[in-house]
Structures are given as C-alpha cells and as structure tokens.
C-alpha cells in the first residue's frame, strides 16, 4: 500500500512538473510558471542575464506582451499641439509604413485639456485646439488601425497646470473609456507629497473597472524606484527623469535604466523615456546608438520627432525592422551592460538573450575617438568553443559564419554596432 502511495505521489509529482515546466527554448531557457500570475512565464538564465524578477508582479491586463511602440507628442511639440497635428501624424504613421512596423500608439501628451474642469466636474478638451473632441480623434485613428493615447497626472494638476486626476480617478477613467482611449500616460506633477504607491493604484483600478482594456503607462520619473513595485500597477514605468535631446542625457538615462533590467518582462517594462531620434540635438551615430540601446533594453519605442517631416536618416533609423525585432522579441528579457573598458569605461558591450537560442549584442563606443571593441564569449555567457554566426543589423549583412571565442569590430565615436549572435553548437552556458 505504501509502495502504491509512493508510486502514485511520484506519478502526480511528475505530472505536476510536466505541466509546470515548459521547455520552449530548449537548452537556453527553461521556463517555469510563476504561480501567482499564470499567464507569465519566467526564463532562467545564467547570472549574466539575471531574470529573477521577470514576470513576477505584472499587472496582467493582457497588454504589453512586448514593449509598446508608437509616437508621443511631447519631445517635439511640447505644449504646441492641436487636433490637426494629431490627425496629420496619424496619416503620416500609416503612409510612411511605420504603423505596419508596429508603431500603433498615437499618444497625446500634456496640454490637450482645458485649464479647468467643466461645471459637471469633468475634464474637457481645450475648445481652441481640440474643437472636435477626443472621441472624434479616437474614431479617426481607429479607422486607420491605430490606437489613441491620452495623458493625465496623479496629482492636483498636470505639469503644464491642467487639471490632474488625483481623487478623480473613476470619473476620468470612465470619460477616457467613453472616448475610446486605448492608452494612458500618467504623470507625477503637483502630487501633494503623497506616496506614489498610494496615488498610482487607484487609476489602475479605475481603468480596470471601465471594462475597456487600456494600456497604463506610469510616469513617476523613477523617484521611488518603481521597478520594485510598479509591476503590479502598470504596463510600464518610467525609471528616470525626462530625457532631453542630447548625448549627455541619453547616455545617463541608459545607465540608470540598466540598473532595473531584472525587473522587466512581458506585461511590464522599464521605461527610460521616449525617443529623441530625429529632433536634431544628436548626430546620426548618436541617434543610431540611442535607438539600438533602447531596442536592446526592451524600452518602449515611442517616436518623439515630427514624423510628418522626417529626414531620410531619421526614417532609416526608426524603421530598421531588424532592430525593432530585437525589441519585440517574444522572450522579452531586457538586455544590459555586460562589460566596459577603456577610459571612463567608454568601450561598452551590451547584450541580452533572444528567442531561438540567440543573443543581441551591441558594441557601443562612447569614447571621443573611433575604437575597436571586442566581445569575448565568456562575457556574453557563451562557452568559448562555441561557433557563432553573426549578423550586423545596421549593415543588414552576415559578417561571420563561425566566429569562435571572440568577435571585435571598429566602431566610430559615439556609434553603436548591433548584432544578432546565433550560436551553432552549444547554447548559452549555465554559468
Ligand atoms: C497646430 O499645431 C501646429 C504645431 O504646433 C502648428 O504648426 C499649427 O499652426 C497649428 N494649427 C492650428 C490650426 O492651430
Ligand atoms: C481587470 O482585472 C482583472 C484581474 O486582474 C483582469 O482579469 C481583467 O482582464 C482586467 N480587465 C481589464 C479591462 O483590464
Ligand atoms: C539634458 O540632460 C543633461 C543630463 O541629464 C543635463 O546635464 C542637461 O542640463 C539637460 N539639458 C537641458 C536643456 O535640460
Ligand atoms: C522640416 O524639417 C526641416 C529640418 O529637417 C526644417 O528645416 C523644416 O522647417 C521642417 N518643415 C516643416 C514644415 O516643419
């Protein structure tokens, strides 16, 4: 009897294990269900790509399986927006082909609303700049296959001193849902000193109770380390202050965001802020680095330039499908800085695992001169005898068939080479 019991419990244990662990990525990734949120799975890697926090806390509203892609009005237009610009941008997203590449969220930032609530206490679009209303705009973009994003603030006022949604969460969420809004960016100005852990969840619950599926983007500026708690609140959370259109800002923000890599995963992403590509403050090489690293870090890809009037270079950068594919890879593990060398650590290697036993590898030269950067396999979590095929995603060409042990390339000052490494024999070693 005891033997049968032991056999039976062994059988159930085996069954349990079979259900609980799904070998999707073979030797690289063995996926374990995270039991509290069964729709997210956690890959286990060697310590280089620690994913210990991946998928644990996610909001689980079914959105953000990969980082959000689209456009936001702030970086180029700031407060100078109106319904014409938003409509023309919708047209440009579609006509340029960017929508087909995945840029589907059209997000209106601050300044869409009137300076005060109406007599019924509701938010109202500014009648001078949005005379047709937000619902009409949502209908317009939906017909084009796009999604509309709007902006509010977890405080008394928005940063540009329009009415905020603090203590109005249910009314405002209902209004947004009734307009057909698909995305909310929720800022942090005039927050009355109230703990963000108290101010952000009420809007999550208010959005949820509308019954409309709405992407919830927390813009808490990283003040209270949102990576530690925002996973169960929003689909993405800002990890830093606002970006500005400069090399200094972009590199600083990349480094700050890197710290939280282990917390990102499908359903909830670290947000190092919107793209500046195309706004004129950085060189072509610097913008290419900005886009490469944002893609590799699984950052939201929200274009921040005037896409009605992009240069050929800007379009080339933001429409690079091979780079976008890294960002949208289904494995959803944030790549990170794995090695630095040279003066002030300016020769950098950033890398992260991809589905299908592959790796994304960036050689980023932050030095003032061109430099050769060499990645050794151990740094990447590969065994040194492993043979690797390498594709360059900016040159769009295969640059090595069977590299072994290391790979180096000359990289221009402030430029970033981005590759996919496909190991041919051994997968990532479990260090
Ligand atoms: C709408 O905004 C754009 C960008 O700021 C501006 O160029 C345009 O003149 C504005 N149009 C109207 C009708 O206000
Ligand atoms: C609301 O939350 C529940 C529980 O997490 C979830 O199952 C549901 O899909 C959510 N609904 C919406 C509209 O987000
Ligand atoms: C842009 O950001 C950098 C780095 O954070 C900062 O030093 C600089 O003052 C900022 N520039 C502007 C115009 O805000
Ligand atoms: C388009 O962009 C160029 C710079 O790339 C600028 O000189 C020009 O004024 C812009 N045109 C419009 C209509 O905004």
Automatic annotation (TrEMBL):
It comes from the Eukaryota. One of its GO terms (biological process) is carbohydrate metabolic process. The keyword Chloroplast does not apply. Its EC number is 3.2.1.22. It is an enzyme of class 3 (hydrolase). InterPro entries: Aldolase_TIM (IPR013785), GH (IPR017853), Glyco_hydro_27 (IPR002241), Glyco_hydro_27/36_CS (IPR000111), Glyco_hydro_b (IPR013780), Melibiase_C (IPR041233). Residues 1-21 form the signal peptide. Residues 344-420 form the Alpha galactosidase C-terminal domain. GO terms for molecular function: alpha-galactosidase activity. The keyword Signal applies. It catalyses: Hydrolysis of terminal, non-reducing alpha-D-galactose residues in alpha-D-galactosides, including galactose oligosaccharides, galactomannans and galactolipids. Keywords: Disulfide bond, Glycosidase, Hydrolase, Signal. SUPFAM superfamilies: (Trans)glycosidases, Glycosyl hydrolase domain. Belongs to the glycosyl hydrolase 27 family. This is Alpha-galactosidase.
């Amino acid at each position: 009897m005891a033997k049968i019991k032991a056999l039976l419990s062994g059988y159930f244990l085996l069954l349990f294990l079979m259900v609980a662990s799904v070998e999707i990525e073979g030797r690289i990734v063995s996926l374990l269900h995270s039991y509290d949120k069964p729709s997210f799975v956690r890959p286990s890697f060697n310590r280089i790509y620690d994913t210990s926090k991946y998928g644990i806390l996610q909001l689980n509203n079914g959105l953000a399986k990969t980082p959000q892609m689209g456009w936001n009005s702030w970086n180029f237009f700031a407060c100078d927006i109106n319904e014409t610009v938003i409509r023309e941008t919708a047209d440009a997203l579609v006509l340029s082909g960017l929508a087909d590449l995945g840029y589907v969220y059209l997000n209106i930032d601050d300044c869409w609303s009137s300076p005060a609530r109406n007599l019924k206490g509701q938010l109202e679009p500014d009648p001078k700049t949005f005379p047709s209303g937000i619902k009409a705009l949502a209908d317009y973009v939906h017909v084009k296959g796009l999604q509309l994003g709007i902006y509010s603030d977890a405080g008394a006022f928005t940063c540009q001193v329009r009415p905020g949604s603090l203590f109005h969460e249910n009314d405002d969420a209902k209004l947004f849902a009734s307009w057909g809004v698909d995305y909310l960016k929720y800022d942090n100005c005039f927050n009355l000193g109230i703990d963000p852990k108290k101010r952000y969840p009420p809007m999550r619950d208010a959005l949820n109770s509308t019954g409309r599926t709405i992407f919830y983007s927390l813009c808490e500026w990283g003040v209270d380390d949102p990576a530690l708690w925002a996973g169960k609140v929003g689909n993405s959370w800002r990890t830093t202050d606002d970006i500005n259109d400069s090399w200094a800002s972009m590199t600083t923000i990349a480094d700050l965001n890197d710290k939280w890599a282990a917390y990102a995963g499908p359903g909830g992403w670290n947000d190092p802020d919107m793209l500046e590509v195309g706004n004129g403050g950085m060189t072509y090489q610097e913008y290419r680095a900005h886009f490469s690293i944002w893609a590799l870090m699984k950052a939201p890809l929200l274009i921040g330039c005037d896409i009605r009037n992009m240069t050929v270079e800007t379009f080339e950068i933001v429409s690079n499908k091979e780079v976008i594919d890294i960002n949208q890879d289904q494995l959803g593990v944030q790549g990170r800085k794995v090695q630095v060398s040279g003066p002030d650590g300016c020769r950098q290697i950033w890398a992260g695992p991809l589905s299908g036993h592959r790796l994304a590898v960036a050689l980023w030269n932050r030095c003032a001169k061109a430099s050769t950067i060499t990645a050794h396999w151990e740094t990447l979590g590969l065994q040194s005898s492993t043979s690797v095929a390498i594709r360059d995603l900016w040159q769009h060409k295969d640059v090595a068939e069977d590299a072994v042990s290391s790979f180096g390339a000359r990289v221009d000052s402030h430029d970033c080479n981005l590759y996919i490494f496909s190991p041919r024999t051994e997968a990532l070693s479990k260090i």
